[in-house]
């Protein structure tokens, strides 16, 4: 295994020093530590080696599971990997809830994000005195998966579609979490989810296909900066496969990730992922094989079977006894774990420098202030015709389905309090404001019985039943979340109706849970009646056989699930017209504020990608109705991803976007609406006009499929880096300085404001397709009216490198580069050119053994695992699949072709100039018994194979090609 050479080398030096001068044990004093591993004066490596030597084989193996037991004889407490901390400490009760990660990223403010990370780290430490169930100092955050597809269900968890921005922000957050001293960790952050994890559909069986340039230039670059800066202490392997191999056994965990730092890393699996290797992925036949392979690939801690370590420890012991693992493999992984625990101060007197932090830090005044600042800085102004900022002397109404509530997501902490948008505006104005959620209140009457669907009173609610009553218990507020999905909130107690496994109860404060069971669809029938279909997330599971509906009432009077043919038909009585109520609230007011958006448990989340990118139809209709009633309408879109707003974004005077921004959302929005803060948030993703602008969510080749701002050639709704301000900025000339560029930026408006100065580059000429633009530096700078500041942006020659597939190395080409600076990727204010004398990539030399994956272009192929241990091969997926190897020098002319192939029988043609060009040779393959059993096939080449040509390999048959040569 790689990645521990530094620790072993240091250990040797320390050991020799001890033998030569200090002896074989730590210095001892009357009040000194009992064992060297408890002596903070010793290097980490020495302490780890000492503790390892004291553990029995069974004790070592026990530490490989997420729930590491105590070792009482050594005075070691239990340890757990995996406290969630994406935007605050989660699942442990009331903690400070900061904006979602996508919101934090929209600040483009690494200094702020580092402060947020530090606050979250403090609060994680705040639980250490009580150590509640689920607590630990190994934090599973941040998520650095690139947001290349805005339909990803977990978009809220990531930072950006851009690797540079993601790397800089994750480094900032991670540095805050660690405390900034890698030898004395406040917490131990783990980057999620390695690697190329950006779809939820079939996430445990789909393969993200990464050609080398996408792998090196894009996906790895999101993970490398934080590891390289010691701002993270490991990675979590993701559920998906990459190039046909499950990430739980991805050798890059060891070979690549550990090469980015000399320090020990603690790599963990995602929950239940080890079991997938023998389950849904069917990659190994036994758990012993699977766990051994994961350990050898670079996994140190197995997250499986919840709190039960039995299956993991049994598999590891079996692997040892059968020779699949050696004791040194166990020591290697356990050494990584213990190194982190030592650095966390666990074995130091008093728990180290952070051992005294207690619960007083949780939701402290300082953290509440920071949460408000973060939510304010994260707000993005998308449109403004001069309506904003609002006058505090004016009147306002705040309406919309998100105007009077704050929603939390799956990985959120529990809100200690909630300042809603309506609350925030009221506090700003110092007086109550009119409002309405703008949703219909309905009653459902069974047309066969004339009786009403009725919910229970009281906080706990009750099972839905049919009654003759027509009071509050029969009334439900209908919230439309798009795609035909609605939620029903009982007017009787303000709780949402959901399925509990046996019936329907109004008992939830908001839709929640892994299977979100508070979802319904009102299906209108041809006779004007409605069926109420239950649409909880679990109905999409394979074990849920068919659509189910409500009613009619059973013998006990309660409503249960039935098939469509037996479903109750309901008349839908609109008791209160939500749109009419909202319109009445905004009439005559100086301003109407409409808050629309998403419900994080419904509109895409873990295990569920978004089904569409638009606002819910009734929300869009509400905005239009309010706009017609009050021309001064401000729309706030509160959700976790880019939205296709259609014509709406042109129809309203002002438009703001915010993520679900935590406990201080309302105050932050009011600060922006009324000008106490000048918005400077910037989008970290391209906002597309339509889903038709995007290929399949499973297409990971951003180069070929023109994904993200780097390659997208269409016109977006809003470009990457976009955001408006209440003031204006002028850019001066872009000047080159040592190691970068500088530009003078002047605030030409009347308000103090922040500008996010963004530097992009474009390589004009290259052997390879280059991005249209690439972010290389940025700076958020604050300027008073009339003030000018010179902004320096770092750019070094190595920053211009891209991955050369002809030689499998980074290369800076001799070329002219456009260097551009501006307010967004589409709003360039100054530019210059840079001539770089680097390398000229030579023509390909295919006489050398060439990996098939290092092609320049392709059609009809899939990237697959060459073996279960390592390597990538190419598999033909369509008749006439081809690979292009551009600019190949065939001199002297080769006379033979050789290739390593496996799988089904087929042929490999060598063609020149195009996939249908001159046929230079054909190799025939009879097939092998296994897709991993490779054979060498050969064929002679014609005299036409000479000169400087594009070489194409055309594949026929379901075969795999790993390497080839022309000699």
From TrEMBL:
GO terms for molecular function: hydrolase activity. It holds the Pfam family Fn3-like. Residues 848-967 form the CBM6 domain. The keyword Amino-acid biosynthesis does not apply. Keywords: Hydrolase, Signal. SMART domains: CBD_IV, Fn3_like. PROSITE patterns: CBM6. It comes from the Bacteria. The keyword Chaperone does not apply. Residues 1-30 form the signal peptide. Belongs to the glycosyl hydrolase 3 family. This is Glycoside hydrolase family 3 protein. The lineage of its organism: Bacteria, Bacillati, Actinomycetota, Actinomycetes, Kitasatosporales.
């Amino acid at each position: 295994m790689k990645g521990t050479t530094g620790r072993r080398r240091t250990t040797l030096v320390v050991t020799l020093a001890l033998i030569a001068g200090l002896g074989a044990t730590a210095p001892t004093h009357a009040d000194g530590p009992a064992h060297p591993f408890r002596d903070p004066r010793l290097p980490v490596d020495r302490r780890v080696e000492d503790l390892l030597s004291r553990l029995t084989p069974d004790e070592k193996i026990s530490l490989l599971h997420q729930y590491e037991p105590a070792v009482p004889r050594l005075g070691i407490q239990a340890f757990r990997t995996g406290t969630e901390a994406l935007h605050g400490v989660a699942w442990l009760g009331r903690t400070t809830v900061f904006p979602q990660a996508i919101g934090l990223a929209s600040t483009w403010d690494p200094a702020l994000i580092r402060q947020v990370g530090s606050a979250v780290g403090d609060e994680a430490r705040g639980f250490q005195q009580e150590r509640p169930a689920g607590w630990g100092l190994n934090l599973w955050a941040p998520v650095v998966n690139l947001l290349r597809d805005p339909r990803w269900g977990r978009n809220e968890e990531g930072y950006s579609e851009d690797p540079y921005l993601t790397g800089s922000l994750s480094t900032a957050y991670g540095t805050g979490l660690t405390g900034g001293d890698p030898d004395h960790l406040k917490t131990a952050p783990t980057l999620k989810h390695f690697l190329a994890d950006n779809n939820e559909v079939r996430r445990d069986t789909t393969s993200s296909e990464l050609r080398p340039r996408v792998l090196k230039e894009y996906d790895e670059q999101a993970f490398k900066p934080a590891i390289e800066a010691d701002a993270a202490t490991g990675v979590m392997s993701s559920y998906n496969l990459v190039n046909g191999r499950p990430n739980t056994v991805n050798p890059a965990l060891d070979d690549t990730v550990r090469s980015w730092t000399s320090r020990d890393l603690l790599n963990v699996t995602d929950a239940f992922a080890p079991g997938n290797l023998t389950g849904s992925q069917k990659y190994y036949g036994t758990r012993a094989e699977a766990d051994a392979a994961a350990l050898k690939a670079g996994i140190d801690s197995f997250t499986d079977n919840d709190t039960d370590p039995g299956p993991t420890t049994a598999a590891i012991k079996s692997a040892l006894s059968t020779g699949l693992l050696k004791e040194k493999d166990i020591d290697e992984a356990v050494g990584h774990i213990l190194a982190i625990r030592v650095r966390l101060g666990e074995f130091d007197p008093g728990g180290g420098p952070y051992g005294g932090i207690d619960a007083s830090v949780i939701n402290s005044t300082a953290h509440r202030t920071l949460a408000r600042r973060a939510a304010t800085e994260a707000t993005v102004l998308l449109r403004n015709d001069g309506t904003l900022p609002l006058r505090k002397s004016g009147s306002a109404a705040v309406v919309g389905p998100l105007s009077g509530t704050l929603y939390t997501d799956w990985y959120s902490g529990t809100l200690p309090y909630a300042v809603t948008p309506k609350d925030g505006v009221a506090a700003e104005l110092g007086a109550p404001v009119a409002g309405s959620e703008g949703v219909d209140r309905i009653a459902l009457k069974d047309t066969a019985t004339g009786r009403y669907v009725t919910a229970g009173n009281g906080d706990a609610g009750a099972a839905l039943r049919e009654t003759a009553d027509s009071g509050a218990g029969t009334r439900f507020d209908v919230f439309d979340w798009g795609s035909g999905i609605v939620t029903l909130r009982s007017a009787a107690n303000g709780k949402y109706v959901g399925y509990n496994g046996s019936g329907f109860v109004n008992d939830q404060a908001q839709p929640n849970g892994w299977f979100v069971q508070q979802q319904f669809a009102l299906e209108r029938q041809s006779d004007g009646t409605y069926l109420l279909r239950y649409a909880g997330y679990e109905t999409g599971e394979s074990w849920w056989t068919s659509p189910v509906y409500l009613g009619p009432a059973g013998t006990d009077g309660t409503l249960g699930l039935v098939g469509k043919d037996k479903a109750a038909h309901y008349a839908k009585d609109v008791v209160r017209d939500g749109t009419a109520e909202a319109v009445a609230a905004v009439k005559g007011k100086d301003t109407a504020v409409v808050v629309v958006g998403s419900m994080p448990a419904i509109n895409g989340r873990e295990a569920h990608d978004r089904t569409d990118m638009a606002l819910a139809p009734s929300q869009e209709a509400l905005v239009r109705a309010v706009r017609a009633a009050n021309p001064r309408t401000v729309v706030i879109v509160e959700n976790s991803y880019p939205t296709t707003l259609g014509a709406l974004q042109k129809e309203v005077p002002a438009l703001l976007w915010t993520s679900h921004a935590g406990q201080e959302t309302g105050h932050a929005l009011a600060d922006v609406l009324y000008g106490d803060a000048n918005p400077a948030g910037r989008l970290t993703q391209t906002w597309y006009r339509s889903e038709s602008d995007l290929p399949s969510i499973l297409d990971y080749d951003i180069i070929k499929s023109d994904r993200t701002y780097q390659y997208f050639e269409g016109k977006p709704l809003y470009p990457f880096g976009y955001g408006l301000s209440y003031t204006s900025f002028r850019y001066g000339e872009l000047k080159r300085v040592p190691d970068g560029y500088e530009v003078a930026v002047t605030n030409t408006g009347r308000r103090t404001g922040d500008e996010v100065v963004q530097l992009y580059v474009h390589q004009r000429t290259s052997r390879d397709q280059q991005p249209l633009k690439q972010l290389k530096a940025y700076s958020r700078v604050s300027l008073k009216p009339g003030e000018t500041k010179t902004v320096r942006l770092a750019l070094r020659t190595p920053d211009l490198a891209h991955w050369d597939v002809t030689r499998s190395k980074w290369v800076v080409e001799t070329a002219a580069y456009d260097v551009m600076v501006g307010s967004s990727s589409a709003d360039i204010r100054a530019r210059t050119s840079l001539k770089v004398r680097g390398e000229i990539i030579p023509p390909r030399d295919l006489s050398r053994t060439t990996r098939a994956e290092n092609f320049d272009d392709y059609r009809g192929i899939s990237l697959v695992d060459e073996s279960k241990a390592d390597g990538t091969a190419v598999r033909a997926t369509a008749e006439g699949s081809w690979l292009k190897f551009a600019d190949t020098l065939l001199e002297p002319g080769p006379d033979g072709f050789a290739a390593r192939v496996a799988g089904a029988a087929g042929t490999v043609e060598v063609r020149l100039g195009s996939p249908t060009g001159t046929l230079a040779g054909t190799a025939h393959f009879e097939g092998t018994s296994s897709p991993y059993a490779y054979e060498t096939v050969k064929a002679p080449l014609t005299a036409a194979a000479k000169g400087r040509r594009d070489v194409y390999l055309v594949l026929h048959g379901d075969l795999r090609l790993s390497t080839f040569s022309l000699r």
